[in-house]
Amino acid sequence: MAKDKMNIVIGGEAGQGLVTVGYLLTKAAIRSGYSVVVTQSYQSRIRGGHNTYAIRMSADGVAAPQESIDLLIALDADTVNFHRGELAQDGCIIAGEFKADDPRMLRVPYKDLSPPRQVNIVALGVAAEMLGLNEDLVARATEDYFGKKDKDVEENRNALRKAFEWSRQNRRASFQGPSKVANPQRRVMLNGNEAIALGAISAGLKFAAFYPMTPSTSINLALISHAKRMGLVVEQAEDEIAAINMAVGASYTGAPAMAATSGGGFALMVEGVSLAGMTETPVVIVIGQRPAPATGLPTRTEQADLEFVLHAGHGEFPRAVFAPGTIEECFHVARKAVDLAERVQGPVFILMDQFLADSYRAVAPFTVDGIMAVRPGADPNSVAQPYKRYAVTESGVSPRLLPGLSKNLVVVDSDEHTEDGHLTEDLAVRKVMVEKRLRKMDIIRKDVIPPSYDGEEKPEALLVSWGSTKGSVQDAAEKLRAGGKRVATMHFLQVWPLIPDHFIPRMKNAGQVVCIESNATGQLARLIRRETGFGIEKHVRRYDGLPMTPESILRDIRL
């Protein structure tokens, strides 16, 4: 009997091409109409080590990773030894001629089926046939990935054909693939970082500066791939200090700007963040979270930078912090961040993490008709004369003219300044300027995205989450409901500022509240208590570098 949901894991050393197999299998599955959640786990090395690429797929929809494995594609013996205990009872291992043994292994004679350079194509073909994917569809996905040079196309086609034929004759009869998709719908294959890039571009982003740092680098690579067509400048700086200051400088001239980094890189950016706060310059900063302190586990995942980002930058100035939980939310939050930064003239933050950054999903194409890009700067004809860049206003937002686009002189100062932008040490002016800047928080508060809620009004348990744990929490809640528990979920897409009326009544209506976070200290729960006085007593926390899964939640939760 076909399975509703399946988990396929490709394992091997860095350099063996397991990501290529995983990527092509994912693309073929999506083109066949399946929903997918990809989890990439890799060590911080160019070659060697043990890496995995996991694809959870379903005909009916899937939102979270899974620990148990239905099909294990082992490119080396370590993969078998490390993961045999996770294999489902009716699971199967696709293996080569290396030294490892398991009764569930299906040994593929790679040398007989292809030249060495096509071994990964054979593994792809055997797995695709076992999963019931169409051979021509897999071949087209391979051609799209590698290009259509005649020799390569012919060699890959031959390897795939032999792999499919061999699998049909030798597959394990007990292995059942996933349920078929009746009417496949067109979807786009995107990961979180790619969606962030596309969302920012759609909002009018024109400049990005970065220093390469896992897991945020692919945001900038995605921006680079669209730069020429979209009139976008992407600059690789010498370090993160230069990157943030380039972004602030570009924004000052009228180019909506972004800087993407990770925790260690952001630590170097905080003075530039404070500069944006004082000069009231729009900038979007994306932080791809990973385990710390210091270098920590540079290629793993965590949610431990919330408090850091919330307080980064000396002094007091307005900010907003978003933490998307799905690929769609990544796109829309990036758009919102660019727009909000322009409206409040200051820094806006997006908290990502390695899991969501690298997790491919099947996404319905975004509707872009009618989408408007931001328009930086005020109309010079609409400002009072003489022009004052930091004119005190009721909203706290002053008219921002762009230098060189009018007869007005635009004066900006990183010291405390008067309304016309010149340095001052007048303490009365200082007080007025602090209050002017902080009034912009009212604009941010009025535009806060309330946490989403799913479940009955008075559940016996409310599961609270933020960021990338969203799908796993929803999946765990479904399993608890199936077991007779009355469970609701609440997910924070925006983690700052917090508006108590958005969530405290629901928390008080629940029999118990459980906060589920990928950090050791419960940073969201502490923030909620600090801002509202409501104490969340129960917690599920994961901080071993692996993403939160429904299984890990159900192991630790006590209801």
Q: How would you explain this protein's 3D organization?
A:
The protein is α/β, with parallel strands linked by helices and 559 residues long. The protein has 3 domains: 5-170, Pyruvate-ferredoxin Oxidoreductase, domain 3, CATH 3.40.920; 190-363, Rossmann fold (3-Layer(aba) Sandwich), CATH 3.40.50.970; 452-556, Rossmann fold (3-Layer(aba) Sandwich). The protein is 37% helix and 20% strand. It contains 19 helices and 20 strands. It has helices at 18-31, 77-83, 110-113, 119-130, 135-146, 150-170, 192-202, 217-230, 240-252, 263-279, 306-311, 327-344, 354-358, 427-438, 441-446, 470-482, 504-509, 523-532, 550-556, and strands spanning 5-14, 35-41, 48-58, 69-74, 87-95, 105-107, 188-190, 207-210, 233-236, 257-262, 283-289, 320-322, 347-353, 361-363, 452-454, 461-466, 487-492, 494-496, 513-517, 538-541. The strands form 4 sheets. Strands 9-8-10-11-13-12-18 form a 7-stranded mixed β-sheet, with helices on both faces. A 6-stranded mixed β-sheet has the order 2-3-1-4-5-6, with helices on both faces. Helix 2 links the parallel strand 4 (69-74) and strand 5 (87-95). The chain is globular and about 85 Å long. The model has no long low-confidence stretch (mean pLDDT 95).
Q: What share of the residues lie within helices?
A: 25-40%
For the largest beta sheet, what order do the strands appear in spatially?
Answer: 9-8-10-11-13-12-18
Mean pLDDT over the full residue set: 95
Helix-strand category = alpha/beta
Total count of domains = 3
Largest sheet: 7 strands, mixed
- For the record, the CATH class of the largest domain is Alpha Beta
| Annotated CATH architecture of the largest domain | 3-Layer(aba) Sandwich
For the record, give the distance between the C-alpha atoms at the N and C termini, rounded to a whole number: 34 Å
Low-confidence stretches: none
CATH superfamily of the largest domain: Thiamin diphosphate (ThDP)-binding fold, Pyr/PP domains
